[in-house]
Design a protein that fits this description.
Structural class: alpha/beta
Oligomer: single chain
Shape: globular
Helix content: 25-40%
Distance between the termini: 46 Å
CATH topology: Rossmann fold
Strand content: 15-25%
Number of strands: 11
Length: about 280
């Protein structure tokens, strides 16, 4: 049961319970979707996700590294990192998603260690200074209320000289209004970190039949400078930052083109919009 105010909007303070229940209701849709394509991992032992494939030129050789994938969901990117030779741990707060991730690892291999925890509790459950690489994929930071707390967890998990690798939807993209009939690309939601914004959506970002059981979520944007500053203040040195003109899902419905690499780009003058970014930092 979702408690709402007089406007019919839930309390952002209830974000963790709402978001966990929403993600639980997405899992069955995602495991069945052609976009995730779980069967390809079992049929082709060399197959890796489109997200990780995009990251490869920047990610480099991770063979033999201790890797943790924060907010791993159903494990397609996590398994892909393991197929690149990393000793990989996946962490997520959804037991339903982790069940799916474990099935995928069991059916397709190689083995991945999956742990249930909220990101802010990751150091407590995984231990400190354990990892050479922290990987975070697209659609992760927008579920966290404090980017500074996240950066402190990242610093705690990494060994000295360990690396953070994150590709994420750009905060400008997260602040855009939903696709409009007139085609205008307009800023509607906060760019900077706030107490959170409630969204009601009965569908997820993949095509599926039926509606999600719990459609409310609370999301949090973080400005690019807020993210960079939080990482540096936590004891990491910025080693790379790159903005991209594509993103791996159709963020603005009917206003984006599907590219040959599986990414999506704004159809009309895409140079107007930073779609996503890659940030890398190394622990001092």
């Amino acid at each position: 049961m979702v408690a709402v105010d007089e406007r019919g909007v839930p309390d952002p303070q209830d974000h963790q319970r709402l978001n966990r229940s929403n993600w639980a209701s997405r899992v069955a849709h995602h495991t069945a979707s052609t976009e995730y394509g779980l069967e390809r991992y079992a049929s082709d032992p060399a197959h890796i996700s489109g997200v990780v494939r995009f990251d490869l030129p920047r990610l480099g050789d991770i063979a033999g590294l201790d890797v943790v994938h924060l907010q791993c969901h159903i494990g397609t990117d996590t398994l892909s990192l393991a197929r690149l030779g990393g000793r990989v741990t996946g962490l997520d707060f959804s037991p339903e998603a982790l069940d799916a991730a474990r099935r995928l690892s069991r059916d397709a291999g190689p083995a991945v260690d999956y742990v249930e925890s909220d990101v802010y509790g990751a150091a407590a459950v995984l231990g400190t200074a354990r990892f050479d690489l922290i990987y975070t994929g697209v659609g992760a930071l927008n579920w966290l209320p404090s980017v500074r707390r996240w950066a402190e967890v990242v610093a705690a998990l990494l060994r000295p000289r360990g690396r953070l690798f994150i590709r994420e939807g750009h905060p400008v993209l997260w602040s855009l209004a939903d696709a409009r009939e007139d085609g205008v690309v307009a800023l509607e939601y906060p760019y900077f970190e706030t107490s959170g914004t409630a969204f009601h959506n009965t569908m997820t970002y993949v095509g599926h039949e039926g509606e999600v059981e719990q459609p409310w979520v609370i999301e949090f944007n973080h400005g690019l400078a807020e993210i960079i500053t939080a990482v540096m203040d936590a004891g990491l040195d910025l080693i790379a930052i790159e903005e991209h003109d594509s993103v791996p899902w159709p963020a603005l419905e009917n206003q984006m083109d599907l590219l040959p690499n599986g990414e999506f780009r704004l159809t009309d003058r895409p140079e107007r919009l930073p779609h996503s970014y890659t940030l890398q930092a190394r622990k001092r």
